[in-house]
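ARCHIVE ENTRY
Sequence with per-residue tokens
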Amino acid sequence: MKNKIKSDIKKHEITFSIYGLGNVGAPIAAVWLRAGAKVIGVDISINLLNDIKNGISHKKEPLVSKVFTNGINNKSFYVTNDGITASKNSDVKIIIVPVAISKGKADFNALISVSKSISQGLKKGDTVIVCPSLPPNTTEKIILPLLEKGSNLKGEKDFYLIYNPERIYEGRAIEDIEKNYPAIIAGLGKKSIERGSSLLKIISKKGVLELSSLAAAEAEKLFEGVYRDVNIALANELTEYCEKIGINYWETKNAANSQPYCHLHYPGTGVGGLCIPVYPKIILESANTVGKKMDIVQKARKFNDLMPKKCVNSSLKFLHKNKKISKNVKIAVLGLGFRGDVTDSRLSPTYDVIKEFLKQNFKVVVHDPYIFQDKKLPKKVLLTKNLDQAISNADLVFISTDHKIYSKLDKNSFNITKKPLLIFDGRNILNKTKFQNNLIKTLGIN
């Protein structure tokens, strides 16, 4: 069955439509194009669609824009904002629109809208693959009824329904899909699982892990993020303990992790992005509906949410201890991205770092090598890609994001700052040997 499907895909007898061409949907579309498929890309953003047509989208995701341009040129790829027509003209529909958290509850508006559009073009024998991170039972209890109602078809009998959670790390998405992890799949029934497995094995060199239910696969994806959030909170708490008793967390962590059953994580100024800080909230909301308290998950999430404020307070103590404070204090914050080497600032802890410094009536300048404009920043905060402009006459340099470029800094990089040179390294990214006779405060080191 796999070989027949693979042959049909290459002959363009099977057409894919990808609903959502953002940081996750675009790499998924690119992977299917690389597999020889004919692909329709669907998105509501006209600006994004125009950028794709002009070959200037997704610059920080290797290969994506190049694959898109090649696809447009050889007529195997086109983009549209018409989801109904895309559904009519495709055989495999892949949904990858986000489910946001609004006021502590999952926001299904985008998912519902896409599901309704797909239903109006759904045909017998079609396949629907759902990829976004969802509360368990969403695919079966929300998406399935919408597809069936709008199409007058029955899932498993007339069309296949599959849940296949995305498993990517921004900046290496294509590699992750094709090489790094097995694909997780679950289906509405046996036929859906077989169909999903045949499709996903084509693009996943690590194969496929089949789960027994759609809800189990939905939970699996959330558990990945919850595990990381809880363990980051543990790391953050242990750094505080290490500082109190006067030992080096990083040295102790590395020694502990030499034992194969210990996996202590990296602490930091906070947890950002639309994954790790969001998945615990989805789990907490789901658990609340069945009357289950999730104390560890909830406490970890609160602990990580407090890290930007804790780090700012620690940096202020460091600043007051080592410098006479004037009325016109300038803070240079390095990094707006939610993590290193990404252009994505969504839910970045840096926003809270900035807010805490502004409460002190300090002047704040933000440097980021990848993000050049941001409407979410307060107007009084300057965002620049010029490091000298950011750190010129700064009283304190606060490293918030672990961009690799910052690891290459040395004392000569900061000649333009005020003296003495004070750096709060919230990510332990600096090579301390390059800063002799300068003052650096690092999380987890007294």
Residues 2-212 form a domain with the Rossmann fold fold (CATH 3.40.50.720).
